Amino acid sequence: MKPFAAIIALLAGILILPSIEGQNQAFDLAKLMPKSGSQPIWTVINRNLPQVQEMINAARKECLQQLGLPKDQRPLMQVASPTAKEKCLMECVLKKIKLMDGNNKLNVGQVEKLASLVTQDNKVAIALSCGMAQTCNRIITVKDSCEAAHQFNQCIGRQLDRNSVKLVW
Fold first, then answer.
1. Among 96, 60, 40, 65, which residue's Cα sits nearest to residue 169?
2. How far is CA 81 from the centre of its chain?
3. What are the residues whose beta carbons fall under 8 Å from the beta carbon of 54, sequence distance 6 or more?
4. What's this model's pTM, rounded to 2 decimal places?
5. Which element (helix H / strand E) includes 158?
6. If you placed Cys at 149, which of 13, 51, 90, 117 could pair as Cys (CB 3.0 to 4.6 Å)?
7. How many C-beta atoms lie closer than 10 Å to residue 14's C-beta?
8. Where is the signal peptide (predicted)?
9. Could you tell me the end-to-end alpha-carbon distance of the chain, in angstroms, rounded to an integer?
10. CA separation for the pair 155, 159 (Å, rounded)
11. What pLDDT tens digit does each residue of the chain (169 aa) get?
C-alpha cells in the first residue's frame, strides 16, 4: 500500500501544484493526505463503495425496463464491443446517476461528489477522480450520446481497474 500512497502524492503534486503555485500560497501536500490515526483509504473506500453500487444498481434496473432489456443483462463495465442497445443502456445509467450530462460529457461536479462520498472527502482521491474525468472529457468527442457513453465507460473502466476499484454496471 505504501508505494500506492507515494504515487498518489506524486500525482497530486503534478495535478494540483501548477494551479496553486500561481496563487503565491504556501502548499503543504501533507494536508491532502489522511490525518494520522485515520483509517487507511482502502478501508474507507471498501466501506462506502456499496452505497454508490446501490445507486448504480437502481439506475440500471430502471434503464433495463426503459430499454426493454432482460433483467439478467450482462454487466457492461469490461465489454469492448457492446451492441447498440447496450451502449444506450450505458448512456441511460450514466445519465441517471448524473455522471454524464446533456452535452455528452462527464459531469466533473458529480464525479467530485461521488469521490468525496466514497473516500470521506479525501482530497487526493477527489483530485485524481476529477482529473480522470477531465482526461476522459478531453479525449472523447463523439456526438452520439450512446457511443459517447460507451467510450466513457471504457475510459472509466480502465481508471477503476488501475486503482483496483470494483464497480459494476
1. 60
2. 21
3. none
4. 0.70
5. helix 145-162
6. 90
7. 10
8. 1-22
9. 27
10. 7
11. 443 443 343 333 333 333 333 444 444 434 444 554 467 766 777 787 788 888 989 999 999 999 999 998 888 766 788 999 999 999 999 999 999 999 999 999 999 999 888 888 888 888 988 998 999 999 999 999 999 999 998 888 777 666 555 544 4
The set of cell numbers assigned to 3 is: 508505494
| Cα gap 84→154, rounded to integer Å | 15
Cell of 30: 501533507
Q: What kind of fold does domain 43-162 have according to CATH?
A: Recoverin; domain 1 (1.10.238)
For residue 85, give the C-alpha cell.
442497445
* Residue among 129, 114, 118 at smallest CA distance from 160: 129
Residue labelled with grid coordinates 450512446: 146
**Closest Cα to residue 126, out of 3, 49, 32, 29?**
32
CA–CA distance, 126 with 113 (Å, rounded to integer): 8
For residue 128, give the nearest of 90, 160, 167, 86 by alpha carbon: 160
Determine the Cα–Cα distance for residues 2 and 13; give it in Å rounded to an integer: 17
Q: What is the 3-state secondary structure (H, E, C) of 95-139?
A: HHCCCECCCCCECHHHHHHHHHHHHCCCHHHHHHHHHHHHHHHHH
